[in-house]
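the three lines:
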Amino acid sequence: MTDVPEVIRIEGVTKRFGAVTAVDDVTLAIREGEFFGLLGPSGCGKTTLLRMLAGFEQPDAGRLLLDGRDLAGVKPYRRPVNMMFQSYALFPHMTVERNVAYGLRMEGVRKREALARAHEALELVQLQGLAKRRPAQLSGGQKQRVALARALVKRPRVLLLDEPLSALDRQIRSEMQLELKRIQHTVGVTFVVVTHDQEEAITMADRIAVLDRGRVVQLGDPETLYEAPASPFVARFLGESNLFSGTLEFRGDEAFLVDREARWRVDAQAAARSGIAPGRKALAVVRPERMAMVRDPGPGAPTNLVSGIVAEIVYLGAARKVVVDLPDGSSLQVRLESRADASFAPGEAVVVGWAPEDAALVADEDDGAAPQ
Amino acid sequence: MRSRGGELSLGALFVGTLAFLYLPIAVLVGLSFNESGLPTAWGGFSTRWYGELVRDEEIKDAALATLVVALGATTLSVLLGTPLAFGLDRLRSRTLDGLVFVPMIIPDIVYAIAFLSAFNLVFTQKLGQQLGLWSVVLAHATFGIAFVAIVVATRLAHFDHSTVEASLDLGASELRTFLEVTLPQIAPGVIAGALIVFTLSVDEFVIAFFTAGIEVTLPIKIYSMVRFGVTPVVNALAAVVLGVSIVLVLAAMRLRGREEAA
Amino acid sequence: MRRGRVGSAALVSPALLWWAGLLVLPVGLVLAYSFFERGVYGGVVYDWTLDNYRRAWDPLYLGVLGFSVRVALESTVVSLLIGFPVALFIATRPARWRTVLLVLVILPFWTSLLIRTYAWIVILNDEGIANRALRELGLVEGSVRLLYNEFAIVVGMVSTYLPLMILPIYAALERLGPELVEAAADLGANAWKRLWTVLVPLTLPGIAAGCIFVFVPSLGNFIIPDLLGGGRRQMVGTLVQSQFLEARDWPFGATLAVSLIAMLLALVLMQAWLGKRSSREEAVTRAV
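prediction for all of em together
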C-alpha cells in the first residue's frame, strides 16, 4: 500500500482558537484515491482540520501540502479541493442545475457546457429529474445529493465531506453510506470525510484517523481499529467493549492482569508485542461478541470466568444483547447470536467468560480523562 | 377547547378592535367619494374631488417635493444602513445592536427642534444656506438608516453563512461571491427596508414642518389644509396617500415574509 | 471566514459617523441651548443660566407635563386592556391565520398618522358620525363634546399605538407555544385563575415592552394633541413646538425637550435594566 502516492500531507499542524488548541501537532498522509475518515467526538478538532484543508482556516504551525505543494496563503477558491458542507450550503436563490453548474461557471466554462456537465453530475447522483427545482423543494436526502454533485462536478483532487450524513434520518443514512462509497469508486476522487459516527466511519472509510482533543490517537483501517485499539479511548469510541483491568505480570510463558480480586490470563505474545512493561496497569478489551455465557462452566469453558446475574436482555434481530451485573456493581455486555441458547432470563445467575486470544491489550495510563 | 363564551367574546373584541383601527381610514375613503364633500350629508357617489385633486397645482408640487425627499432619504438610508447591518452581523456586539434602536425611539418633535437648531446654526447662520428639501432628506435619512439596518440585519440572521464559504470553495472570488450569492439572498431585505423608509418619509410631517424652510411637502400641505380651512379635496388626497402607504407596506411585508418560508 | 474587526469597522463607521453628526451633535446642541438665554428678538444669547429649568418648575408648565404623563398613562392602560385579549385571540388561532390577523392589526400603524388623526376630527366633531350614531341610538339628544378634549387625545393615541401593545404580547404568548395551548385547553371554570396565574406572569416581559412602546411615543407626540386637543389642552410636544415656532423661545423649548428626553431615557433604561431588550427588538423587528 505504501507505494500509492500521497495527495495530502499534513505536517505538524496546530491550530488554536484563543486558549483552546483545536488541532495539536497533527501529522497525517492521505493517499491517492482512498476514502479517508477523520473520526472523533465533537470538539476533537476534526472539522477544524477539514476547514484548514479547504482554506477557511489557516494553521498556526505546521504545513499542509497538496501534491507536494504548500497550501499556505492559497485562497479557498484557488485550491483544487472541494467541500460538501454539513448544512449542504445550497444556494437557495438558484435552481438545482444552476447550483451544480456554479463552480464550473466560476472557472469560466461556458453556460451551455457547464449545464451539460451539471446534468451529468446530477445523473451520477441519480437526480436527473430535479434539475429545475429550487433547494427549498427538495428533501434532505436530495439536497445532500445536490451538494455532492456540486462539489464533484469540478473534479477536485480531494473532496472534503463535513459530517455528510448527520442531517439525514436513519434509514436514508445507511443507504447513503453505500451510495457515497459507490460514487467514490466511480469517480475515483480522494474523499476525506469527517464524522463522529463510528459506524459510519467503519462502513465507508478505507482508513480512519481517530482524533481526541486535537491529536491523532490511532490511524489504521477499520478492522485494526476495532480488533486492536491502541488506547482505551479508541476501544470505547469504536463499538462496545468490556474492559478488564489489572497489573501486567509474566509467570513463565504465561501473562496475567492481576487485580485485587481477580487474575485475568492474557495472551503472552500479544502482551509482549503491546510494549507494556511488566508491573504497569493495563486493560484487556473484549468485544461483546467475543464473550461466552453459560450457566455452568464445564470443561470446555474459556480461561477467564466471572459470575454475575442477567440484568437485561435486548433483542436486536440478528442477535441478543445481554447485560450481566457483576457483584462489584459493574456490568458486562455479552452479544449472543439469535440462534444461540435463548433460554436465559433476567435474574438468572450465569457465568461469563472470555479467552485470552480474544482480548486486545492496551495501557491504562491516560484512562482517567477519556470520554465514554 | 376553550369555553365557548370566552372564545366568542375574544372574537368580538378582535373584530371591534379592527373596526376601531380601520374606522378612520374607511371614513376618509368614503368621504372622498361623497359628492357633497361634507361629512354631515351624503350627496351621492362622485369622483369629483379626485378630479379637483389632479388639477390642483400646489398639491402636484407638494407631491413632487415629497417624492424627491422620499427617494433621497431612501437612497441614503440604503447606502448607509445596508453596510451597517453587515457590520453588526459580524461584530455581534449587543451594545451596538441596542444603539441602532435609539434613532427609532426619539420623538419626532425632538428630532424636529434638534435639526432646526443644528441646521440653523451651521447652514443658515454660518454658510448662508436656506433650509429646503435637502435638509428634510438629511433628517429623514437619520432615522431611515436605522430601519434599513434592522430589516437587513434580521435577514442576515436567517442567512446561511456557509453558502458564502461554499461559493469561495467552488472557485468564486470574494467579490463574485458577494454579487452572486450574498446580495441576491439579502436583496429582499434591502428592498423591504427601502419600502418602509420610503413610506415613513412620504408620511412624515413634524420633522419636515420644521426643516423644510419655505418648501411644502404633501404632509405639510395636508396639515395646512386641515388646520386652516378644510376643502373636500383633502379627503381625496388623504385617500390616495393612505392607499399608497398600504400598497408599499404590504409589498415590504411580503418580501420579509418570504425569509421564513425559505 | 470572519474577517478582522477592521473590515467590520469600515462597514459600520459611515452610519455611525452620520449619526454622530446628525443625531448626537444636534441633540447635544439642544441640550446646550437649554442652558442659554433667549435673545430679545428670539434666537439664543450665549450666556449660561439655569433660569430655563427654574421656569420649567412653574406650575403652569408642570401642569402640562403632568397632563402629558396622565394622557400617556391612560393611553397605555386602555391599550393594554384591549391589546392583551386581542393578542391572546390571535395567538390561539391556527398557525396559517395568525400572520394574516397580525398583518391586519399592524397595517394601519404604517399609514400616515397625520391623516388618521384628521379622520378622527371628522368622526368626533359635533356633527360627526360618532355623534350622529349616538343620536340614532337615542343615547343622547343634541350632541356630546367628543372633540378637542382629553377623550379625543386618548382615542387618537390608542388608535395609533395599539398595534405596538399587541405585537410584543403576541410574541410572548406565541413563545409559550404548547404551554399556551394546554392552558387554553384547560380553561374551564378556572379560566380567570389560569389567566392570572399562568398567562399573565409568563408574558410579563411582553406586557412590559408593550407598555413602554405605547407610553414613550404617546408622551412626546405632537400631532395628536395638536389636532385633537384643538390647542385647548397642551402636551409637552405641542408646548415644545409653540416655544420654537411661535414664542421663538428656543432655550426654553430646548429645556422642555431635554426634560422629555430625560423622562424617556429613564424609562428605556429601566426597560433595558429589566433585561428584556431582546423582546423589544423582536417586537420592533416584527412590526416592520
